[in-house]
């Protein structure tokens, strides 16, 4: 059985000084603090402590071997997106990070794969970078779940998803720049409360707006962190669709009708939550995703799926690898 972890993150060990390159402040950079440790910075502000597995492919492979992972698919840490920058700067930065990701993968290309990032604030530039990245060897694209005040039902973002479908380029939607940060300054509440809400907002934006009616079914679309709050609150959304015309005015089918249009990863950290997720989405639409190597990720990748008390061996095989092999066309 091939085990595929399809949601992991990276930052390069080094990259050009983007503030100097573009003449604008507060670009992300990596401050190496001691051997194997660093601080991801945004300008002069500390953003997140990090360690060597983020940038060292040798250590990354050692950890994969430790956890029994055959293939790992990595994507940029969302703070690198640059959606609020001038398009030319964001496009150049995306190309830099995309090329450095493939450099990491070249250490063991059969086991390390990468998703590209794009300057999503400009749809033409984003489509150009997706096409370039696919030709270079990226197996998909990671996007943030919104661009400023634009949710995924924005017509430009729908056009981008249509382009990804035409390119046969799988898409991972990752929450970022979370709402309500003024009320959640402590305890990582932005990650624990707002992040699941951001993901549910993305999914419902596509469903309730009718956007899925305009996006080809060929699009492979996955939402991180188990789809956030979606599975648990689907009953509430379904009830609202049945009884309030303002909910269903642009959505021709009940929300549950659209669960075959997207996938989710398995990063929910509880047997009961994972069972609910599979019941809602179906066992073919849940992919192993660890969110490693961050502290909020699964610390022993695949443990939740492998040890699930009620899952059959066949179901475990699908979630641990078969679904991802199909999603990314790796088999």
Automatic annotation (TrEMBL):
Keywords associated with the record: Decarboxylase, Lyase, Metal-binding, Zinc
Signal peptide span: none
GO process annotations (BP): secondary metabolic process
EC number: 4.1.1.45
Amidohydrolase-related domain location: 4-329
One MF annotation (Gene Ontology) recorded for this entry: hydrolase activity
Pfam families documented for this protein: Amidohydro_2
Cellular component, GO annotation: cytosol
Metal-binding is among the record's keywords: yes
EC supergroup of this enzyme: lyase
Pathway: Secondary metabolite metabolism; quinolate metabolism
Record's subunit section: Monomer.
Family of the protein in this entry: Belongs to the metallo-dependent hydrolases superfamily. ACMSD family.
Annotated protein name in UniProt: 2-amino-3-carboxymuconate-6-semialdehyde decarboxylase
Species for this entry: Pseudomaricurvus hydrocarbonicus
């Amino acid at each position: 059985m091939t085990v595929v972890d399809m949601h992991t993150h990276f930052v390069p060990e080094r990259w050009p000084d983007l503030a100097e390159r573009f003449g604008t402040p507060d670009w992300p950079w990596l401050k190496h603090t001691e051997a194997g440790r660093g601080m991801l910075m945004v300008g002069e502000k500390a953003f997140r402590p990090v360690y060597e597995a983020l940038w060292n492919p040798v250590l990354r492979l050692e950890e994969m071997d430790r956890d029994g992972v055959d293939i790992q698919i990595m994507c940029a840490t969302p703070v690198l997106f640059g959606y609020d920058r001038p398009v030319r700067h964001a496009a150049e930065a995306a190309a830099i990070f995309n090329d450095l990701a493939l450099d990491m993968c070249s250490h063991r290309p059969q086991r390390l794969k990468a998703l590209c990032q794009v300057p999503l604030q400009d749809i033409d530039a984003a489509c150009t970078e997706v096409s370039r990245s696919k030709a270079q060897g990226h197996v998909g694209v990671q996007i943030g779940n919104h661009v400023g005040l634009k949710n995924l039902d924005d017509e430009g973002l729908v056009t981008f998803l249509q382009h990804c479908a035409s390119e046969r380029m799988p898409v991972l939607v990752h929450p970022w720049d979370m709402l309500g940060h003024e009320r959640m300054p402590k305890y990582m509440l932005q990650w624990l409360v707002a992040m699941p809400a951001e993901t549910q907002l993305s999914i419902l934006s596509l469903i309730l707006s009718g956007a899925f009616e305009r996006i080809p079914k060929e699009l492979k679309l996955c939402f991180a962190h188990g789809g956030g709050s979606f599975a648990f609150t689907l009953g509430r959304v379904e009830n609202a669709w049945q009884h309030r015309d303002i909910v269903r005015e642009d959505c021709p089918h009940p929300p549950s009708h659209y669960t075959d249009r997207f996938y989710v990863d398995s990063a929910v950290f509880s047997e009961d939550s994972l069972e609910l997720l599979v019941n809602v989405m179906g066992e073919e639409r849940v992919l192993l995703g660890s969110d490693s190597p961050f502290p909020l990720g699964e610390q022993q990748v695949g443990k939740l799926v492998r040890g699930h008390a009620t899952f059959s061996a066949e179901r475990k095989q699908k979630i641990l690898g078969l679904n991802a092999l199909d999603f990314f066309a790796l088999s």
